[in-house]
Amino acid sequence: MVKNKLIFVFLDGIGMGKEDGYNPFASALMPTLDSLLGGKLVRGTEVYKNNLLVKGIDACLGVSGVPQSATGQTALFTGVNAPEILGHHYPAYPNKELISVINERSIFKYADEQNIKSIFANSYTDGFFKSFDVNTDNYSVTTRCMLAANSKFNTTEDLGRGKAVHWDITNFTLQDTPGNGIPSIVPYMAGQNLLHLATEYDLILYECFLPDLIGHRKDMEKATAFLETFDSFLKGLIDEKSPNVNILISSDHGNLEDLSTGGHTKNLVPLFCLGSLAPEFSSVNRIDQIFDGIFLNL
Ligand SMILES: [Zn+2]
Q1: Rounded to the nearest whole angstrom, what is the distance from the C-alpha of residue 241 to the centroid of ligand 1?
Q2: 10-residue stretch averages of pLDDT, the chain, 298 residues long
Q3: Do residues 248 and 36 lie in contact, with contact meaning Cβ atoms separated by under 8 Å?
Q4: Residue 289 belongs to a domain
Q5: Residues with beta carbon < 5 A to ion ligand 1?
Q6: Distances in Å between the alpha carbon of 43 and those of 23, 219, 263?
Q7: CB 205 within 8 A of CB 119
Q8: Domain containing 84: what range?
Q9: Tally of domains in the chain
Q10: Which of 20, 152, 226, 293 is the most exposed place for a label (fewest CB within 10 A)?
């Protein structure tokens, strides 16, 4: 038996929207995704094949209001219905109640307990380490998941060695820091770097929150550029990939797919799985069910 591996690409703020002029997914040039899906990633798109699953799943989790990041990401990375626990959707960074859920069942801690070798692929800048403060209110769910597992954060040195991927895919946000020695890279190479982590690790998580930032600004030009960058990144991620390495893509809530509004949406979010485990995720209908889907199969 070949060992299953999984690379979870978390894109913040990506839903499946109407195919109209406000949806950059409808017009962006995404040849890699198009050829996999046979069309655009929009409302109603479904693919059920032996090596590819694409469907829309619920991010509202039975709680009224528009889904938000802290509760949505806690649901993704702990498998717990976080908005139900709070009684509402909670934005941005996790509060004390969510942190205690994460400390119990962080994806990295859970992986450790199951003897699954995991890594958070993202790199952290020197600024993060210099101003490190475990009591801050400003750490993301993924950072809290790392702290809960006592895991080692990737540095920009790891990034420079191709052993990490920056949250912006191409390192463009690092170019304003003089002397950091980290060049920008093409998205294809970032995808390859992420893929190659699967030789060493069984579960790899990567987070990109650029689509949520762009969605809040309702910027069609940047949205289109991001999706085209992401498509090249995806090509790098799947080129020469073995079938036992599974690429899972999902989100915490919609946003980018509807630029008629600068807020989040209640749209279904995509569940994309490319690899031999694809059929195993066909029963996942909500974002808090992805976690069990992962651990039942690794
Ligand atoms: Zn947001």
Answers
A1: 32
A2: 94 98 98 97 98 98 98 98 98 98 98 98 96 96 98 97 98 88 96 98 98 98 98 97 97 98 98 98 98 97
A3: no
A4: yes
A5: 212
A6: 10, 20, 18
A7: yes
A8: 5-196+206-295
A9: 1
A10: 152
Q: CA distances (Å), 268 to each of 43, 76, 126, 168, 208, in order?
A: 8, 14, 36, 24, 19
Ligand 1: distance of its center to the CA of 255 in Å? 7
Q: Is residue 37 situated within a structural domain?
A: yes
**pLDDT of res. 138:** 96
The CATH number that applies at residue 157 is: 3.40.720
What pLDDT, on a 0 to 100 scale, did the predictor assign at position 178? 77
Instruction: Give a yes or no: residue 273 inside a domain.
Output: yes
CA of 66 to the centre of ligand 1 (A): 11
| Per-residue confidence (pLDDT) for residue 176, from 0 to 100 | 87
Distance of CA 232 to the CA centre of its chain: 16
Compute, in angstroms, the gap from residue 175 CA to the centroid of ligand 1.
Answer: 24
* 12 alpha carbon – ligand 1 mean position (Å): 7
End-to-end CA distance of the chain: 12
What angle in degrees, to the nearest 10, is found between the helix axes of 69-78 and 96-105? Answer: 20
Distance, CA 48 to ligand 1 centroid (Å)?
Answer: 30
Q: How far is the CA of 89 from the centre of ligand 1 (A)?
A: 12
Residue 181, pLDDT score? 84
Tell me what percent of the chain is helix, strand and coil, each rounded to the nearest 5. 40, 15, 45
Alpha carbons within 13 angstroms on the beta-carbon side of residue 280 total 19
Q: Is residue 201 part of a domain?
A: no
Q: How far is the CA of 281 from the centre of ligand 1 (A)?
A: 26
Specify which residues 119 forms β-bridges with: 204
| pTM listed for this prediction | 0.98
